[in-house]
Each structure stands twice: as C-alpha cells, then as structure tokens.
C-alpha cells in the first residue's frame, strides 16, 4: 500500500471497506462493516476499546464475540483504516486513521482515563524534522501527554 494515493473519506464512499478488504485479499463481512460504522458514528475525538465496541454491538442486538472484534480491529489497523493507541496502561483504543482524521495528539488523565485531543503543528514539525534528520520516512507523528485532568485535581485536593 506504499506510494498509493490517499483513500477517500469513509463517508464519501460507502463501499470503501469492501473495496479495501477485497483489494488486500481479505473478506468483507457485515461484522467488520458494523465495527467501522461505530467509528464513523462516534463523536470526533472519541476512542473506542474492544470492550466498548462489544457493548455497543450487543446493545444493537448483534451477536459478536470478542475474538471476532479483535480480528476485525487487527485487519483494519493493518490496512490503515484504524489506528491503535495505548492511551491507558495496558488498554488499547482505536480511532479512525489518517487520512480520515487530521493529525492530532492526546492528553490522557491517569486518574480517570479521560482523553482529550489537541492539534499542534509544532509537534508535527518536530516529528518531521527529527525523522528526516535521521533518515526516516515519517508515517505518523503522535504525541501523548499523561497528567491529571482538572476534575480529578479538584477531587484529589
């Protein structure tokens, strides 16, 4: 998938998942589509864990196992549709990947797990400069700040 033109935005091509999966030799399944639909419906900046995906799909009356969810997430990460993030200790979260989302970074509260996204061109410039100066080809630049959010600070005071 290197040196290929960027994929169109998901909401501009409803058959995108099927096209990408077929092109890369993976089967299109309704479960994969339903998982991707959750990301499309999620509020901007909302990250989903496998557990949250499972709960949401069960709430919609879907019968789906954790193993099916993990396999689907793995395939979508491998294809570049989703990005895997480890924002909290040992917990993985997923979000739509570039080019579907703008470059952004994360503030993570270590107390409650709240995640806030922010954009800062300086971070991306540093990533680009550092990778270039060391002979790397930049694929992604992500900066994660761990701290304690204002709400938790007031509870802990």
Structure notes:
The chain has about 160 residues and is α+β, with helices and mostly antiparallel strands. It starts with 15 loop residues before the first helix and ends with a helix. The protein has helices at about 15-25, 30-40, 50-60, 65-80, 120-135, 150-155; strands spanning about 80-90, 90-95, 105-110, 115-120, 145. The strands form two sheets. It has a three-stranded mixed beta sheet with strand order 4-3-5, with no helix packed on it. A two-stranded antiparallel sheet has the order 1-2. A hairpin with a 5-residue loop joins β3 and β4.
- Elements, N to C (H/E): HHHHEEEEHEH
Oligomer: single chain
Number of helices: 6
The average pLDDT is 81
Could you give the count of β-strands? 5
Summarize the structure.
By secondary structure, this protein is an alpha+beta fold. It has helices at 16-23, 30-41, 50-59, 66-78, 121-133, 150-156, and strands at 82-88, 91-96, 105-109, 115-118, 144-147.
């Amino acid at each position: 998938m290197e040196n290929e033109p960027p994929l169109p935005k998901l909401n501009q091509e409803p058959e995108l998942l099927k096209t990408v999966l077929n092109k890369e030799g993976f089967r299109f399944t309704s479960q994969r589509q339903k998982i991707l639909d959750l990301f499309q419906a999620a509020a901007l900046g909302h990250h989903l864990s496998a557990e949250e995906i499972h709960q949401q799909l069960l709430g919609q009356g879907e019968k789906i196992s954790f193993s099916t969810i993990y396999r689907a997430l793995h395939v979508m990460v491998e294809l570049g549709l989703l990005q895997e993030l480890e924002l909290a200790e040992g917990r993985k979260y997923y979000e739509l990947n570039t080019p579907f989302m703008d470059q952004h970074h994360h503030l993570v509260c270590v107390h409650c797990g709240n995640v806030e996204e922010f954009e800062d061109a300086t971070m991306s410039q540093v990533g680009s400069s550092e990778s270039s100066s060391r002979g790397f080809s930049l694929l992604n630049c992500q900066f994660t700040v761990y701290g304690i959010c204002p709400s938790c600070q007031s509870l802990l005071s």
